[in-house]
Design a protein that fits this description.
2 copies of one chain form a homodimer.
Chain A lengths: L1 E8 L3 H21 L1 E9 L3 H4 L8 E2 L3 H4 L6 E4 L6 H11 L3 E4 L2 H17 L4 E2 L10 H8 L5 E7 L2 H13 L3 H10 L8 H4 L2 H15 L1 E2 L6 E2 L7 H9 L2 E12 L2 E12 L11 E8 L3 E8 L3 H20 L10 E5 L9 E10 L5 H11 L4 E7 L7 E11 H13 L8 E5 L3
Parallel strand pairs in A: 1-2, 1-4, 2-3, 4-5, 5-6, 8-14, 9-11, 11-18
Antiparallel strand pairs in A: 7-10, 7-12, 10-11, 12-13, 15-17, 15-18, 16-17
Chain lengths: 429, 429
């Protein structure tokens, strides 16, 4: 049986998971592929810890020894971050090696350059594990949907945020407490900013959108709001109106341009995304021929991520054994797509105004909405203690983002209304 | 740009759908693949109808003109059935052509022979569209899960049955009426036997199980029960106990052997499969590294099926352009797997006894259960009109299939108890 030599860089949580997968299932993998893949070098700076898992003759401290090893055909970068990981991937591609990574932050930041370089050097830069964890969504979009035009890709792409929102919803916890529980349960990192701020989901949706729409989508141009401001009372009211609050990353074509957004949205309780709980990820795709489809699975964790790395490795082993270079490319990394302006996007909105409880407030609020051409669908006032602020929930008909923003600004500048008032966008079924 | 010549045989619903996909999205497909695929011949015996869709110089009546055309590298068989379709596929493979089919009935019946022949001739026999319609489950199992050992594949694989059960559940319709509605809505054929009898789901799960477990699974050895006996009252009671009734095709490893079954099962309301409505299909997979994952989409219809045919064509175009023959094989068609005996399978059961309403019935029923070592979990008697038969619902602890069958047989042979009494198996979360 033939053999492909693989170099693994980074033996943290994901790296260890993948190493363990190959130890347990390497023979199974080889029997399915007709070719074995052997990890001939593992680079890890924390050699003391790595020694417990990796034989001495395989372990190296400096990743350059992996890159400079001409026998190694595939480099797997599982270091993470946007620093040394960039050097690893770039130098591996330059040496003509195929690369697998799970590094969404780096790909979102410098993917246009790295994908273009890979294309120039005729090697593959694969990243199934970077989006949706174990869900095989990149392969599905790239290969299974090749006969379709994709209209929409949206999903729950950050497990930490979904875990927190689920706990807030099911246990009526405030954000801070749900975050602490998530950290305790191992579903949130010590510094959760990238997760709860929406940045991680923005990285992932920019990559998905690039593949779906054929050009580069720059994540820095994406409207991105996180979940730190979400209140349990808002989730509760949304539920009573038939909606779940989920951090949704979405990319859809509007007038031929991709509209790409990340924000906590209200989605109808009947939508399959609304019942996706805790750390699970899910991706919903809408295409012209396939129609709607949903893919659901573990969005993070060492083992699920390792499964996706193995999927990429299977593709590369196949290609290497066939001495094959890919023909087509799923997108052109050198062509940055112009996004549809988010201010022009239309949604139904769910406003939450926090107000004093006195005459004139209703007139102000409804006046500002009317003045911006926004039609009220239904209203609900939470009436508790006259000395405390009152919660005014208003669902409105479709309006443009800019209309809703202007109305909110005007209401918030009126006396007796808290500047903590806000709106949520409602995504259709 | 290079070009792959494709021959399409059969221009019925699915064939027309695929022809239309290539007409609409052929250029898009070519830009993604770096190679165009052109349908150079279409064979259809109903030439009068086909002429409306296909140019005269492309249309032929006799499929042999497609097989004998040496320029054609890929033959797509969308005739269906187990007669001429077999000749088409066999002769295409023998001429060294790759084949794509959506024909689950034929593959389940003669796949062991056809896959072995394809392997011998070093061509591919692809069938993404045969299982799960537009859901890319074959590619996922074959490629994305290559690093995993699959423990379980189960799902809703027959859209007709699921449509009928959904209507029975939501509108409290009896089976016959729901079937008529399904036929009216175009979700059931005039002869629905293969769908509602479970045969179609058995074909599909045998193919999925073969890929998942590495050898040939003969669908004729599968325990297969359809939905014709399901009563709306049973669905209603199951719902009140927290379960949905779904036709579930399931394949899982028990003591190293595949246990493969098709039957209407009770599944917990929290399980994602329980909320799959109407004609939608869904496949749930459980693996050692990926963990649980769910794939959901349209299980039938011309367009969704065409999407899967295009996915297979994409793979073949890629392979042809690389002048590549596959290395490994996902399963050995010449090795028929011994199945785990279904009589030894253990489930919780839900019994429905239809009885006269008189003293001694309870003693008989509970005595037979006890005599077979079956422990009662909860009971419910539907009490309406003393002159009519009474419905006795009993949920019991885990027991072997053979125990439940023996107990049911004994109860049914007692006086005052209808032989229409039955049980449902409860599948765990």
């Amino acid at each position: 049986m033939e053999r492909v030599a693989v170099g693994l860089v980074g033996l943290g949580i994901v790296g260890s998971g993948f190493y363990s997968l190959m130890k347990h299932n390497g023979e199974h993998f080889a029997s399915k592929m007709g070719t074995s893949a052997e990890i001939t070098k593992v680079a890890e700076i924390d050699t003391a810890r790595a020694k417990k898992q990796v034989p001495k003759d395989v372990l190296v401290e400096d990743y350059r020894r992996v890159i400079e090893d001409d026998a190694i055909q595939v480099v797997i970068e599982l270091v993470g971050g946007t620093g040394v990981a960039y050097d690893i991937i770039r130098s591996a591609i330059e040496r003509g090696k195929h690369v697998i990574t799970a590094n969404k932050a780096l790909l979102a930041l410098r993917g246009a350059e790295l994908f273009a370089l890979a294309r120039e050097k005729q090697v593959e830069l694969k990243f199934e594990a970077a989006v949706g964890g174990g869900i095989p969504i990149i392969k599905v979009v790239r290969e299974s949907l090749v006969g379709n035009r994709i209209g929409k890709v949206m999903g729950i792409l950050n497990g930490t945020s979904n875990y927190i929102l689920t706990q807030m919803s099911e246990k009526q916890l405030p954000f801070e407490q749900a975050l602490k529980e998530a950290q305790g349960a191992g579903f949130a990192e010590a510094d959760p900013a990238l997760d709860v701020g929406g940045g991680d989901a923005a990285h992932k949706i920019s990559l998905l959108a690039s593949f779906a729409f054929g050009g580069w989508v720059d994540y820095r141009q994406i409207l991105c709001e996180g979940i730190t401001m979400v209140r349990p009372g808002e989730i509760e009211f949304a539920a009573s109106a038939g909606f779940a609050v989920k951090l949704i990353a979405s990319a859809m074509l509007v007038d031929g341009k991709p509209a790409v957004t990340v924000f906590p949205a209200l989605i109808p309780a009947q939508h399959p995304l609304s019942s996706v709980r805790n750390e699970v990820n899910a991706v919903f795709v809408e295409c012209d021929f396939l129609g709607p489809a949903l893919f659901l699975g573990r969005g993070a964790g060492a083992n699920a991520t390792a499964s996706s790395v193995a999927s990429d490795l299977g593709d590369l082993v196949q290609a290497l054994m066939l001495h094959a270079k890919r023909g087509g490319y799923p997108f052109d990394p050198r062509r940055t797509l112009e996004l549809y302006p988010d201010q022009k996007m239309e949604y139904r909105f769910f406003f939450h105004f926090i107000t004093e409880n006195r005459p004139g407030i209703w007139a102000t609020v409804t006046g500002c909405l009317a003045g911006n051409g926004i039609n009220i669908e239904s209203v609900h006032q939470k009436w508790e203690d006259r000395s405390k602020p009152s919660d005014l929930y208003i669902l409105v008909d479709e309006a443009r983002e800019e209309q809703a923003k202007k109305a909110l600004r005007e209401v918030c500048s009126a006396s007796g209304i808290s500047s903590d008032s806000r709106f949520y966008r409602i995504l259709p079924l």
